[in-house]
Every structure is written in structure tokens, then in C-alpha cells.
């Protein structure tokens, strides 16, 4: 009987291995929810099964049973409208390919245990920025089947009436090349670029040795500059062109008047404009430029004068913001692209003052840090208190006592403790409780905070909770999707991303993090596409679903940080 069962399992393995080679999406509800990229050999391992599953067996490639368990009691989650049961298989610590078997259903799923399961996904997440470069052809030797002609050189950009003044009247032509397309569209936005650029530079400063070695095969690879920094500079150099050289204010965005159609970049040829200066854009600019100053100081021989240029521009932008401390972005009547509007600038002032103080030591910035201090929350493009905290805490020992006495470390760790506390008891093992637009980036940003908490305290529960966040993104979530294009068994195929939609490839550009489930908009695909009313399941893998399936640079950046940090801290490098 034992031999018969082993032969049965082997037959099931062959069926499963065959089915996993395809790229089709699996629309039925998966009975097993798991990290579809891989589990680290010597780290916690958790998968989830549906409420009705009562036994889980794991077998190796030879059909030997290596693990068996009765799942934990079902836990209901109001965000997903279902109950799941946890299966902790951390004891399985031998690298290999295994199959999870559910004897009651005759269903099985392949899992992998590896020493370095996240190296390739970190590379892909970073290289996604290269694929979204404006003004550059993606050559076959670097882009493979996703090669494409250059689009949007952006050397002829018109000053919109909302941005015009005596020095640059309406219709003035300026040049503003380089940069990344912001999301699924072809426009470029300073506010969203601010947090994105900061997050990538923070990844480099927090894990310098790791990212120095990470080769993602872009044209500049092998130059002696880390690929992460090279890629970030492609956008940073564009951002520097968005400052008005006369007064220091920064244009909010570079955009067409309407979103382009679903065409390739070189086919999108409508006029482009710089639109409106504002407090949010100018402070975001100053913050990232001050941060870049400190990073680039170590690469002066590669980029002579760029570090000092960044600091000069940052201080000039600060001066404009101090003179215009409450100028929100208001969408002009003839502009219909993304707004990124914000009306509360206390967090931007705190973050920017933190970066400028760390770069200059000037009391004027110290005073603003004290004045604008508030407890941090999970960062997003319009809520950046935590970014100032991260930078200050990364230099904590050098800070003056007056800053340390604000409660900087205690308040940050309190936020991390709250997040980790939720994840310990949550049915899906993650901290997220509120599903906003771009919910997957919220999960990644929560993971980033936990990583920083681990660095500050050495508390491995923080690190393991961040790993659990990555597991969620890679498939252990209520939808069952691995949310990073190009990866997973149940993979995302139809992101809202113009190059992916308009090219000749069935598969989307790899390495992009889909926005993820939410109920902010339920009708973007029309009434014929029904979405779950439960926020954690309200996702559809269709190009029309811009609310759940678009990509964005500020979503990919924390994925680069999280997956790279986990790879650096928990795997055998």
C-alpha cells in the first residue's frame, strides 16, 4: 500500500510539473496559497490552504514524503471574506523542488526551496525601470523580445500657461529629456519620482555591498557604478531639468494634455508640456536632490560636480518653497492626466528639512525638523514623514541630541511594532489592513519599514515579518496571483502598461509589480467585468483595470528594496 501511494504521488508530480510549464492564468480559486518564486532554505516558510483542506503532504522529486501536517484552525479575514488555515513547514530546509499534495482533492502544487530565491526577481524589478526609460531605444541585447524604438526625446517641451511667468512665457520651449515613464502612461511626474528615487537611493545606502554586485544587464553595466545608481540617475537627471533656473520652483509634471492611446512610445507624438509649479513638487525635488548629494559624494570621479549641483539645486528649491509654503497643485482645465494632488505639506517640509540638515548641518533646517515633527506612518507618494525618519535614523549616532530627544527612534519602532503585531495574528500573515489604490506597494513599503526596524534593533521578528510581506506579493495572498510580471505559476499577464499592451509579445514586460486589489474603482473595465466586493480579492488581470492592474515606478521601488534586502540579509550570498 505504501508503494502504491508513492506511485500515486509520483504520477501527480508529473501532472503538476507539466501544468506549471505553461503561462496561462488559473482563474479558479486556488486551494493552496504560497510563494510561487521560492522559499529561503534557512528561513521561516508558511503557506495557506482553504478552510476545507484538512491535510497537507509535501513530497520531494523522488516521491518521498518529507513533510505532513494538519493545518492550523481556520482564521476568517473580513478583508477577503474567507477563512484560511496556516501550514508552517519551516523544518523543510533542504534545497530542492517539492510538491504540495492535498490528498482529499487530488490537487498539488510545486514549490521551491532555494538558497537564493529572490536574486532574479530583484534584478527584474530593478530592470523594469530600464524598460520604462523615456527617450532611449531598448536594444535587443538588453531588452530581448521587449526591445523597442526610442520615444519621447523631450527636447521640445512647451511651458503651459499654468507654469508661465515673465522669464518663461506661455509657449516657451525648454528641454527636459531622460527620466522614466511614471506608470502605464507616458507622462513624468515629480511628486511620484521623489519617493521613487529616494527609495532606490536608500536601498543602495542601506545595502551598499549587495547592490554594488547586482548586475542587471543594462547598457551602463560594468562601468564601476552600481547598476541601481546608474538607473536611478537616469531619472534624477531628468528631475533636475524640471526646476525653473530663474526662481528655483519646480514644475509639477511633464505631460501631454490627454493620456495617449495604447500605442508604443515612438508612436505617441502629441505635444508635451511642463505644468504648474507647486509646493509639493518643489519640496520633493529638494528632498531627493539633497539625498542624492550625499550618495553621489562617493562617486565624484564618475560624475564630477554632480553632487554639488544637486545640493545647490536643493537649497534653491527650498528657498522657493519657503516663499510659497502652501501652493497646491490644481489641475488646469485643459489637462486630463494624473494629478498627484496634495494639500498638506507638513510631511514634505519635515522630510526635506531632514535631508538638507543631513547634507548641510544648517540650523534653519534643524528648526523645521523640530517644528514639523510628527509620528510616522507607512509612506506613500503623498505621505512622506517616514522617509525623513529613515534618513535621520540611518545617521542616528551623528544627530544632535535635540533631534534624538524628539522620540525619533521610539516613534519609528512603535510603528514597526504595530505592523509586526498585526502580521503575527493576521489570517494571511501580513500587516496590511486597508486596501488602497496600489495596495501591493503598501505591503512592500510596510516591509521596508520592518527591514529598517530590524537594522536598528536586531529583532529578527521584524525581518521575518518583512519576508512574510514578500511571500504575500509573490502569491500567498487572497487572489492567488504572483503579482510580479514574468514570475509565478498563477501569473499576471495583462498589466495596464502601454508598451506591454501595444507590442507583439503575449507576455508583459517582466519585473513590474501590479497595483493589486482594492475597491477604489469597481467599474474601470465596465459593468460586464464583475469584481469581488471584498477589498483583498477585488482584482482582475485585465489591461482595462487601471485601478488594480496598472504599474507605477513608486510601486516597483519598494519591491526592489524589499526583495533585495531580504536577499542580502537572509540568503547565502
Condensed summary:
The protein is of the alpha+beta class and 573 residues long. It contains 18 helices and 14 strands. Strands 2-9-8-4-5 form a five-stranded mixed β-sheet, with helices on one face. It has a five-stranded mixed β-sheet with strand order 11-10-14-13-12. Strands 1-3-7-6 form a four-stranded antiparallel β-sheet, with no helix packed on it.
Fold and architecture overview:
There is one protein chain. The protein is an alpha+beta fold and 573 residues long. It has a domain at 135-358: Alpha/alpha barrel (Glycosyltransferase), CATH 1.50.10. Helices cover 39% and strands 10% of the residues. It contains 18 helices and 14 strands. It has helices at residues 2-19, 119-131, 140-143, 190-206, 208-213, 227-240, 279-296, 306-323, 346-360, 363-372, 385-394, 401-404, 408-425, 439-457, 460-473, 498-502, 546-549, 553-570; strands spanning 32-33, 39-40, 46-50, 56-59, 65-69, 75-77, 82-88, 96-102, 107-114, 157-159, 173-174, 188-189, 251-255, 273-277. Strands 2-9-8-4-5 form a five-stranded mixed β-sheet, with helices on one face. A five-stranded mixed β-sheet has the order 11-10-14-13-12. β8 (96-102) and β9 (107-114) form a beta hairpin. The longest helix is centred in the last third of the chain and has 19 residues, at 439-457. It is globular and about 75 Å long. The two termini are 44 Å apart. The active site is at 541, 550. Its EC number is 3.2.1.4. This is Endoglucanase. Keywords: Carbohydrate metabolism, Cellulose degradation, Glycosidase, Hydrolase, Polysaccharide degradation. It catalyses: Endohydrolysis of (1->4)-beta-D-glucosidic linkages in cellulose, lichenin and cereal beta-D-glucans.
Amino acid at each position: 500500500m505504501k508503494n502504491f501511494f508513492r506511485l500515486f504521488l509520483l504520477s501527480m508530480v508529473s501532472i503538476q510539473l507539466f501544468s506549471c510549464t505553461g503561462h496561462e492564468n488559473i482563474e479558479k480559486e486556488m486551494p493552496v496559497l504560497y510563494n510561487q518564486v521560492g522559499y529561503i532554505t534557512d528561513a521561516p516558510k508558511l503557506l495557506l490552504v482553504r478552510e476545507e483542506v484538512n491535510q497537507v503532504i509535501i513530497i520531494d522529486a523522488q516521491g518521498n514524503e518529507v513533510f505532513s501536517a494538519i493545518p492550523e484552525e481556520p482564521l476568517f479575514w473580513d478583508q477577503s471574506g474567507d477563512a484560511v488555515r496556516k501550514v508552517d513547514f519551516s523544518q523543510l530546509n533542504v534545497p530542492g523542488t517539492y510538491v504540495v499534495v492535498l490528498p482529499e482533492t487530488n490537487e498539488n502544487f510545486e514549490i521551491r526551496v532555494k538558497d537564493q530565491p529572490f536574486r532574479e526577481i530583484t534584478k527584474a524589478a530593478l530592470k523594469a525601470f530600464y524598460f520604462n526609460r523615456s527617450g532611449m531605444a531598448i536594444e535587443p541585447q538588453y531588452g530581448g523580445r521587449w526591445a523597442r524604438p526610442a520615444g519621447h526625446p523631450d527636447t521640445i517641451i512647451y511651458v503651459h500657461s499654468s507654469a508661465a511667468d515673465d522669464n518663461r512665457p506661455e509657449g516657451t520651449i525648454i528641454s527636459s529629456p531622460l527620466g522614466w515613464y511614471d506608470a502605464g502612461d507616458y507622462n513624468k511626474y515629480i511628486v511620484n519620482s521623489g519617493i521613487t528615487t529616494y527609495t532606490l537611493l536608500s536601498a543602495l545606502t542601506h545595502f551598499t555591498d549587495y547592490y554594488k554586485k547586482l548586475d542587471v544587464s543594462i547598457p551602463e553595466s560594468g562601468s564601476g557604478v552600481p547598476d541601481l545608481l546608474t538607473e536611478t540617475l537616469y531619472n534624477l537627471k531628468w528631475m533636475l531639468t524640471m526646476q525653473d533656473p530663474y526662481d528655483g520652483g519646480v514644475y509639477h509634471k511633464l505631460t501631454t494634455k490627454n493620456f495617449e492611446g495604447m500605442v508604443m512610445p515612438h508612436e505617441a507624438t502629441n505635444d508635451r508640456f511642463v505644468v504648474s509649479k507647486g509646493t509639493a513638487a518643489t519640496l520633493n525635488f529638494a528632498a531627493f536632490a539633497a539625498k542624492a548629494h550625499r550618495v553621489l559624494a562617493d562617486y565624484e570621479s564618475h560624475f564630477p560636480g554632480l553632487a554639488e549641483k544637486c545640493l545647490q539645486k536643493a537649497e534653491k528649491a527650498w528657498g522657493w518653497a519657503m516663499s510659497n509654503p502652501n501652493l497646491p497643485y490644481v489641475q488646469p482645465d485643459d489637462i486630463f492626466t494624473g494629478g498627484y494632488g496634495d494639500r498638506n505639506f507638513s510631511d514634505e517640509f519635515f522630510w526635506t528639512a531632514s535631508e538638507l540638515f543631513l547634507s548641510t548641518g544648517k540650523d534653519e533646517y534643524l528648526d523645521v525638523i523640530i517644528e514639523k515633527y510628527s509620528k510616522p506612518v507607512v509612506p506613500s507618494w503623498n505621505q512622506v514623514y517616514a522617509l525623513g525618519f529613515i534618513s535621520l535614523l540611518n545617521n542616528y549616532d551623528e544627530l544632535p541630541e535635540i533631534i534624538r530627544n524628539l522620540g525619533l527612534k521610539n516613534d519609528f519602532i512603535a510603528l514597526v511594532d504595530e505592523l509586526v503585531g498585526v502580521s503575527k495574528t493576521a489570517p494571511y500573515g501580513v500587516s496590511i489592513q486597508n486596501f488602497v489604490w496600489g495596495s501591493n506597494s503598501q505591503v512592500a513599503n510596510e516591509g521596508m519599514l520592518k527591514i529598517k526596524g530590524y537594522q536598528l534593533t536586531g529583532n529578527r521578528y521584524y525581518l521575518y515579518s518583512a519576508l512574510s510581506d514578500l511571500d504575500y506579493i509573490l502569491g500567498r495572498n487572497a487572489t492567488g496571483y504572483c503579482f510580479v510580471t514574468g514570475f509565478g505559476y498563477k501569473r499576471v499577464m495583462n498589466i495596464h502598461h502601454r508598451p506591454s499592451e501595444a507590442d507583439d509579445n503575449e507576455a508583459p514586460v517582466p519585473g513590474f509589480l501590479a497595483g493589486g486589489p482594492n475597491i477604489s474603482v469597481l467599474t474601470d473595465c465596465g459593468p460586464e467585468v464583475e469584481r469581488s466586493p471584498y477589498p483583498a480579492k477585488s482584482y482582475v488581470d485585465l489591461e482595462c483595470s487601471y485601478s488594480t492592474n496598472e504599474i507605477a515606478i513608486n510601486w516597483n521601488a519598494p519591491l526592489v528594496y524589499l526583495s533585495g534586502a531580504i536577499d542580502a540579509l537572509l540568503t547565502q550570498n
